[in-house]
Amino acid sequence: MPGATGETTGVSTLIGCFAISAGVGPPLRVGVFMNGHSAPSYLRGVLAALRRLPYVELVLVIDVVDEAIQELGPDECLLLRIYRRRIDSRYDAEPDPLSPVDCSDVLVDVPTVTARRAGGGAGAELATDDVAAIRDCRLDVILDLGVRAVRGAATSAAVCGVWRFHPGDSRRYSGQPPYLREIIASDPLSAVELDRLGPGPGTDLVLCRALFATSPLPSMRLNRLGPLWGAQHFVVQKLWELHQFGTGRLNERSEPTAFPAMRRPLPGAPGNVEFGHWLMDRATHGLWRRLRRKPSDVHWRVAVRRSRTPLYEEPGISALRTFRWLESPRGHFWADPFVVLH
């Protein structure tokens, strides 16, 4: 298969020190919520890693039929859509961790069942019969890789619940759109979490969180590269911890996603007024820096010295005078030479 060697190397790095568990229990039974067999590209490596862990058994794929995904659409203002097309798209952020990829080859021999959301709208839950069927599979963990989080009774269908990645610090940001709020707020750090979902928003537990430097450029495409690619090992790490030490250790190292005193809902996608103010502020600061920039003419040059005595053994002005300058053609400069010894 094309690219198999690269993917194998990446999976080995992803598993790292979590390849072997000293736990004496049977392999963990893991299921996956998906919409079809597609998932964000950064999660494909997670699925491939689970297939290679001796203490994990990927036993079930639950294909969630969610018609509301197409009906709801992205909740974005006009300026945000223009920003995506005209500004954010200019930044080279490949491979994009959120681009959907087909994972059928990774899940080729894993049984698949279909579950439907009962009713329509954003708050629709899985049908009661489907939740009962999933519970009968005696799963230890369910990974939610779908477009929308599965909540309600389904969050208790596995012994250790439903796990899902959250882009951003859930105590401050809703995660939609991913990694834009941090740039607007000039937050120096952008977080990523692996959460255990509760029945409703605000009832989740954070299993793991990591912080990454926020991109200095106004691009949420660039800002999500570090957190999402850097968090791939979270699932492997926590499954290893669960198998090695049990549920007690996992619960002890978890924390609520929001402080009890928090009452206001987390901000979602910005509106035209807020986003327009931020864009104007960025443009004004950029123009001011350009106007204040002093003209400069930097010209790099390369010098060569031939001697049997290394320069560090012959310090002094006399040794420096033995260098010969290599003049570059007019309008060009040379820099960063590589000296190769044959």
Provide a descriptive summary of the structure in words.
The protein has 342 residues and is of the alpha/beta class. Helices cover 30% and strands 20% of the residues. The chain contains twelve helices and 13 strands. The strands form three sheets. It has a nine-stranded mixed sheet. A two-stranded antiparallel ribbon has the order 2-4. Helix 1 (4-15) crosses helix 2. It is globular and about 85 Å long. The two termini are 39 Å apart. The model is unreliable at 1-6 (pLDDT under 50).
Topology:
Layout: H1 4-15, E1 28-34, E2 38-40, H2 41-52, E3 56-65, H3 68-72, H4 78-86, E4 100-102, E5 112-118, E6 125-126, H5 128-135, E7 141-144, E8 162-167, H6 181-184, E9 189-196, E10 205-213, H7 220-223, H8 225-230, H9 233-245, H10 247-252, E11 255-256, H11 272-292, E12 302-304, H12 317-320, E13 324-326
Parallel strand pairs: 1-3, 1-7, 3-5, 7-8
Antiparallel strand pairs: 2-4, 5-6, 8-9, 9-10, 10-11, 12-13
Helix pairs in contact: 1-2
Summarize this structure as a short list of keywords or feature phrases.
342 residues; alpha/beta; nine-stranded mixed sheet; two-stranded antiparallel ribbon; 30% helix; 13 strands
